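This entry is retained here.
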Amino acid sequence: MKLVFIGACHEVTGSCTYLEVNDKKILVDFGMEQGIDDYENAKIPCNPSEIDMVLLTHAHIDHSGLLPFLYAGGFQGEIHATQASCSLCSIMLRDSAHIQEFEAEWRNRKGKRSGKSEYVPLYTMKDAEGAISKLVPHNYDERIAICEGVEVRFIDAGHLLGSSSIELWAKEGEFSKKLVFSGDIGNYNQPLIRDPSYIDEADIVVMESTYGDRRHDTPPDFVSSLAEILEKTFKRGGNLVIPSFAVGRTQELLYFMRIIKDKKLVKYPPNFQVYVDSPLAIEATNMFIKNKESCYDEEAMEFVNSGINPLSFDGLNIAATSDESKAINFDSNPKVIISASGMCEAGRIKHHLKHNLWNAKNTVLFVGYQAANTLGRRLLDGAKAVKLFGEEVVVKAEIKNLYGMSGHADLDGLINWIKNIKNPKQVFVVHGESSTADTFTKMLNEEYDINAYAPYSGTEYDVLNEEFIVHAKPVEIKRKSYEKVNTVYARLLASLDKLTKIVKSSEGRTNADLSKLADRINELTNKWEK
């Protein structure tokens, strides 16, 4: 029984942990890295086709975004997640594939003029749909046997619609261990969704540490704080542009906007318009409404039980098409523009920033975590100018941050969560910037007498004997950015593994079938040898 730490080690994004139990190979999350990372990730210690199953904590792309890449490499197992996470993944993975394909098309269109080699997307829509076909939905709080010797239970993590911590009971021979994977632990008293649930026991815990070195400076009232920013911006005649995560944060903002409108907290203009410009956010909002019974908190359910949709109001405009998106910036009236992505790395928000950053009347309001080296972080850190679509844009708009509006638990929330677990033998701290993970680990060890360790990617741990196999050292990335082209060769190697597996499993088939397969392989290899 072995754990290998792959992603989000001394980094925030790209969550992935590998587990072996009874010769079964299991991944917990397989997320995409966002922004520019500091450290190289170790490779998963087997080929994609050998992975038996994936356990998914939630649908955010930094936890689910490489599942189509896994499928493209030959993965044919099941992906277990909550009902709502499966619903969200069905739209988020397609959206991610669309972005990959669109970026490749755009780069290749530009590259042809300069003679650059073809840029290949990390994965395609076909790969995304293949991964989606492997999703297996489960209810919260049900203990399920997923293979021999392994049972799991999904517990509400309070971070996102459908988000979960995962309890895993593993048995090898006479020995058994309980492992817990926290996923992203939610903030308390968030709008719409319920607070995170506690887990009372575990032998091994893998937990996040995003805000493990700070406490949220929560405003007394998010609604009042947002209304004040709206009023100030509108009086200048400007727009309020909000880069927002399409899933979770956008729906919270709509909830706040409804309350502001109902209570008439903005005097000028009282009938201000709100534009949601993100096809993904639109679909995700429908998923929130569809899953309200299993995920909404009591306050949100009061609206529902009164026949009111808490995510809709007069003045809400949906921009589904690109033409509708472009038209927003030709409207001179003060307005709210909510658009993805939340860290300004992709999507329609970049167009709105290009049209609004240069004007001092406008406000750009951040409402979520901005990872290191993202455009959002650069703006928050005071960049005077940024490059958008090859053009330098001066930053004159007011840059604001709605502090405390986070889907992640802060230091107190993380401590409360781990303290509820009785005497874990080993706690692994992941999903935090390097200094944060180290600070939080040190606090657990010294102040709470919890045996904690922040692994670097490649660290291996023997679960049964409770000892380290490999203490990995950090390997700093030498290149300037994440080179997706390298993954294309990895994909080719994975395809070779898939073909080898097919050949090895063909023994016993008819001679006619074997002859056809051999002819097709020879036809392909002869073509490439020429």
